[in-house]
Write a structure and sequence with these properties.
The structure is a single chain. By secondary structure, the chain is an alpha/beta fold. The mean pLDDT is 96. The protein has a five-stranded parallel beta sheet. The chain is built from 15 helices and 15 strands.
């Protein structure tokens, strides 16, 4: 499958540029013809071999051409339109049918993995290159002010099963304290006391209140083995949601990413609790480029937070700013805004559990700090309420506090 016609690719770039920059149609029209058209068709992502250039302290890839310099006699040498479309639109997922056991696009099949640039916000760089071109032509592009660069989010999957998982942890890591801890967990379950994962949820809110963090909690309305362990229809969980100081979003269940009826039903249930729900993150990050955006559009979802790789921290669409996916049916940008997911706790606790946890924490923070130092950003981080319990998830509370410090460091008050 080839790219769309050139004018459509240009319009898609412009739509995403306008989302993050102040620029008028006239100025863009004066600049667009200065961008070389270097696109050439290809059969597979693996056919593409990048040329590497430098911007600030990042080495970044350029496809479809092999220039030695960005500018030659004030003429831009790279096709930022085609390169942006390749990485941002969802094109590589659209042409791939090789999915994992959860029907997800595999990180190992991504162009980011193949060429090792998942933690580089390449499209941010393309935008800044376009900004530099504009400046050379006497046109000033102004970045939109982002008050806080990190969006703190929580997927609330479990509130009742901490007792069981705590016992499992004790059995796998048996010590002289384990008999007492196991008895305590059984006592909690037997007498209906507050579960350790419910306590972790309370701890999460306490931390955010203390540090004045604005966060989004995504709640589930489907109880099943693949979804929530709590019943949202019970009064105590409805009260828990209503008493939260966080913004409330929907965490659509495992079987909603390609099923409009399931999605719509779950959205309707959460909305019935007097919430204006317009933000979502798909459970298990299950997202089909061919189906999920259309379900979101029909349900008038304003922002989606699903687009990150479960297996690795970084940027699935190579951007650290809000963006629109491309509608391959209507040949234009989808209306739902995507907020890129930079980091998920499960990446370290599950997918990279064989790595040294403290070293992974350090790498994540170092990467985030470098990106925030050099670029205008708005991306999300995901911490499930469960990781605020310290048994299985030692160190994650501190990591969350470190992200809070980073966000305050780079906020525009």
């Amino acid at each position: 499958m080839n790219f769309p016609e050139r004018h459509i690719v240009i319009n898609y770039f412009f739509d995403n540029l306008k989302l993050n920059y102040h620029i008028d149609d006239h100025s863009f029209n004066d600049l667009k013809d200065l961008i070389p058209n270097n696109y050439s068709s290809f059969n597979s992502i693996t056919d593409l071999s990048p040329c590497w250039l430098n911007w600030k302290s990042f080495s970044f890839p350029v496809f479809f051409e092999k220039p030695k310099d960005l500018f030659v006699s004030d003429q831009l040498t790279i096709d930022v339109f085609s390169n942006t479309f390749l990485l941002l639109s969802g094109y590589q997922e659209f042409i791939s049918n090789d999915l994992d056991i959860h029907s997800r696009f595999k990180y190992q099949n991504s162009i980011q993995y193949i060429h090792n640039f998942v933690d580089t916000p390449v499209v941010n760089i393309y935008f800044e290159i376009f900004e530099k071109l504009a400046k050379k032509r006497g046109i000033t592009l102004q970045k939109k002010v982002i008050k806080e660069p990190i969006v703190f989010t929580h997927d609330i999957d479990q509130l009742r099963s901490g007792w069981f998982e705590d016992i499992g942890y004790e059995l796998r890591n048996f010590s002289f304290k384990s008999p007492f801890n196991i008895s305590k967990s059984l006592f909690t379950k037997l007498f209906g006391l507050k579960d350790s994962y419910h306590q972790a949820y309370d701890k999460m809110l306490t931390i955010e209140k203390k540090h004045q963090v604005s966060a989004i909690s995504f709640f589930m309305t489907e109880k099943s083995k693949k979804d929530a362990d709590y019943d949202i229809q019970r009064v105590k969980y409805q009260k828990l949601i209503k008493n939260s100081h966080n913004e409330i979003g929907l965490h659509p269940g495992y079987y909603t990413y390609n099923n409009f009826e399931n999605f719509e039903k779950q959205l309707r249930i959460l909305s019935s609790f007097d919430f204006n729900v317009s933000k979502v993150r798909q459970h298990f990050l299950k997202f089909s480029i061919r189906e999920t955006p259309y379900i979101h559009n029909k349900n008038k979802i304003s922002e989606d937070y699903s687009l990150g790789f479960a297996e690795m921290y970084g940027f699935r669409n190579s951007i650290a700013l809000p963006f629109y996916l491309y509608d391959f049916n209507k040949n234009k940008a989808h209306p739902t805004i995507e907020i890129p997911l930079f980091f998920m706790d499960g990446t370290i606790s599950h997918y990279r559990k064989d790595k040294n946890r403290e070293e992974e924490f350090g790498k994540v923070l170092q990467s985030a700090n470098k990106i925030l130092t050099l670029f205008s950003c708005k991306f999300s981080v995901l911490f499930h309420n469960t990781v605020f319990s310290e048994k299985k998830y030692k160190g994650f509370t501190k990591l969350y506090l470190d992200f809070i410090k980073l966000n305050k460091k780079f906020s525009n008050d």
